[in-house]
Amino acid sequence: MLNPDYNEAGARGAYTYINDLSKSGPTSAGGAVQSINTGMNHLGTLMRANSELPGTNFPLINKAENAFATGTGKTSATNWQQATYLFSQEMAKLVKGGVANEGEVRDIVGQLDASKSPTQRAQAIQQAAEFMYGRIQAVEDRGDRVLGSMAPNVSLMTKEAQQNLRAAYKLGGRELPDLRPPGDLKSYLRQIHSGGAPQPETTDEQGRAASQGRVLRYNPATGKIE
Predict the structure, then answer these.
(1) Cα four-point dihedral sign 71, 72, 73, 74
(2) What gap in Å lies between CA 216 and CA 167, rounded to an integer?
(3) What is the total count of domains within the chain?
């Protein structure tokens, strides 16, 4: 008897998900995860630069101060601009993969303006981080659905990305949702290859341990669920 969590259709869905996650191209789930983690690291650079930018509520004054600071050798505004550019490149990859659309990217990146007030910059960073978190959470949720009890108990977000996510939510005055333990793409796939989380015990109508049947697992040698 097969484990009902892993019928033929379910096994096919799990295989498709794992195969998609194992790729690194921009149109794959694995490529999206890499772009999100990299993008979160660029947001970390933005936050460090943000602390050194002008603190007035007047964009014109901030813009002038940024220009003066850059002209006198300071790098905070330059670091902000470079991090914004690199972040936008990762967002563009998400657009190519169908994870985001051009309008969303334009709105999010457009708010990352070094001349804005500290409150506006903080909100822009938090909203960018929230967007990235939502996209990686969607990939994890898909894994939970198709893998069932074989789904890993770690996040696809790296430890550094989660630290930047927490900092961004704190900067924007928002409470961060509960996160899975930090991991990364390799550790997530490793858990799947090793069999994932333990199978929960099932019982029959009399409360006795019921037969689990054959549990299908991912075989990295064949690349199939067996």
Answers:
(1) negative
(2) 40
(3) 1
Domain that holds residue 115: 4-225
Residue/partner pairs of 115-120 with CB below 8 Å, 24 or more apart: 115/59, 115/60, 115/62, 115/63, 115/66, 116/59, 116/62, 117/56, 117/57, 117/58, 117/59, 117/62, 118/50, 118/53, 118/55, 118/57, 119/57
Other C-beta atoms lying within 10 Å of the C-beta of residue 132: 29
CB contact at 8 A, 152 and 197: yes
Secondary structure of residue 120 in the 3-state scheme: helix
Q: CB-based contacts of 207: which residues, under 8 Å, 6+ apart?
A: none
Give the whole-angstrom CA distance, residue 208 versus residue 52: 64
SS3 218: strand
- Alpha-carbon gap, residue 71 to 65, rounded angstroms: 10
What is the per-residue pLDDT across 23-46, written as a single tens digit (0 to 9) for each? 989 889 999 999 999 999 999 999
* pTM confidence score: 0.80
